[in-house]
């Protein structure tokens, strides 16, 4: 098993890409704690019934005090932590002129600030043990702007990719790796909101001619989180069927 006994914290890991990462990491031997918005007891029960070690804590990840309290409690119970996955995100589809200041800040709070808060809470443990990894779920929008013309979302993902590089440099002396994934056109509830026309248009621009699956994203997350990626840090890996090659 590629993550045997690894202790993993994932934000919003109860559906979509986060859920696939949670399930894949558990199958590879990890213990997982989710920081979630709402009660996800049925999901947790489904997994614990299968014998997996998984828990969820309802946490407002846009509130640093709550994040710190939740992460400290999880890590103290485990006696350490090895992997943080900053996965949770929201999207707001208004253009700049239509977007309220509140909507802009909400996107930044969940997509950027929460990643900073979770990292800030986890880093003292990782750097003290001189091992571990942080994985940020960014987006192709970080590199070429959001394809659904959602400026706050694209900007937030650009910030996350830059945060990844900055943190990778800061934590390298402690042997802590920081990477990101930039998916595009993955079948989830987020992309289910697209119109049929939008979906066709998106697929027509993808050389592999289809959308991606959450399992394909989870496979890349597993690689980056495991020791197989031990010399990779500061990288943002494309998962996009060839849509963007950079
Ligand atoms: N689906 C795609 O095509 C695609 C493409 C590029 C990037 N991504 C990124 O992948 C990640 C997962 O997206 P997804 O498609 O699975 O979306 P999703 O909407 O299905 O899942 C997002 C998750 O974030 C959680 N979340 C949102 N706000 C939260 C908060 N305040 N506190 C805690 N959890 C919160 C949700 O509960 C949910 O579990 C996101 O970072 C997203 O930006 C997705």
TrEMBL record:
Record domain Ketoreductase: where: 6-197
Q: Which PROSITE patterns match?
A: ADH_SHORT
Which E.C. number(s) belong to this protein? 1.1.1.100
Q: Enumerate the CDD domains for this protein.
A: SDR_c
Fetch the Pfam families from UniProt: adh_short_C2
UniProt GO MF annotations:
3-oxoacyl-[acyl-carrier-protein] reductase (NADPH) activity
At the top level, the lineage of the source is: Bacteria
Q: Name the UniProt key words of this record, in alphabetical order.
A: Oxidoreductase
Q: Which InterPro entries match?
A: KR_dom, NAD(P)-bd_dom_sf, Sc_DH/Rdtase_CS, SDR_fam
Which principal EC class is assigned to this enzyme? Answer: oxidoreductase
Task: Provide the family line.
Answer: Belongs to the short-chain dehydrogenases/reductases (SDR) family.
| Name this protein carries in UniProt | 3-oxoacyl-(Acyl-carrier-protein) reductase
């Amino acid at each position: 098993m590629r993550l045997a006994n690894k202790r993993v914290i994932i934000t919003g890991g109860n559906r979509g890409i986060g859920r696939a990462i949670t399930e894949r990491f558990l199958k590879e031997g990890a213990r997982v704690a989710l920081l979630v918005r709402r009660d996800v007891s049925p999901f947790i029960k489904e997994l614990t019934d299968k014998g997996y070690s998984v828990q969820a804590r309802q946490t407002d990840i846009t509130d640093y005090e709550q994040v710190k309290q939740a992460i400290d409690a999880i890590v103290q119970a485990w006696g350490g932590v090895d992997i943080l996955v900053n996965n949770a995100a929201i999207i707001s589809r208004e253009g700049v002129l239509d977007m309220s200041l509140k909507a802009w800040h909400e996107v930044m709070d969940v997509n950027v600030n929460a990643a900073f808060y979770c990292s800030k809470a986890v880093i003292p443990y990782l750097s003290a043990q001189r091992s571990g990894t942080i994985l940020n779920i960014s987006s192709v929008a970080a590199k070429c702007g959001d394809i659904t013309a959602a400026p706050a979302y694209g900007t937030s993902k650009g910030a996350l990719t830059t945060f990844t590089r900055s943190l990778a440099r800061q934590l390298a002396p402690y042997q802590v790796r920081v990477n990101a994934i930039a998916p595009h056109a993955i079948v989830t509830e987020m992309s289910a909101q697209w119109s049929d026309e939008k979906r066709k248009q998106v697929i027509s621009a993808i050389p592999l001619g289809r959308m991606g699956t959450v399992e394909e994203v989870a496979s890349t997350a597993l690689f980056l989180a495991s020791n197989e990626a031990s010399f990779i840090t500061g990288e943002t890996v494309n998962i996009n069927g060839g849509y963007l090659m950079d």
